[in-house]
Amino acid sequence: MTISHIKESELLRIGDSIRILRKNKGWTQKKLASESGIHEVQIRRYENNHSLPRDEQLQKLVTALGVENDFFTRMENMQYGRNK
Fold first, then answer.
1. Which InterPro entries match (predicted)?
2. What pTM was computed for the model?
3. How far lies 3's CA from each of 30, 40, 53, in Å?
4. What are the pLDDT digits (tens) for 40-56?
């Protein structure tokens, strides 16, 4: 999965999506870190939009959160009214 075609300003919203998905599962950041294999501090940085997940980390999050591979891309497209 590649996210290189998404503008950085759009990627900032991924952190909000990660937080919502995590909370919908009833998980803490620590639990998401454990399930994804990504350090808890990094999860916090993603959710606070201080850092953007690279493709490898994004794939780990997709797997842990149980969403489709293109989930974050589709959300951005829907938000901006783009159909791909």
1. Cro/C1-type_HTH, Lambda_DNA-bd_dom_sf
2. 0.74
3. 25, 22, 9
4. 999 999 999 899 899 89
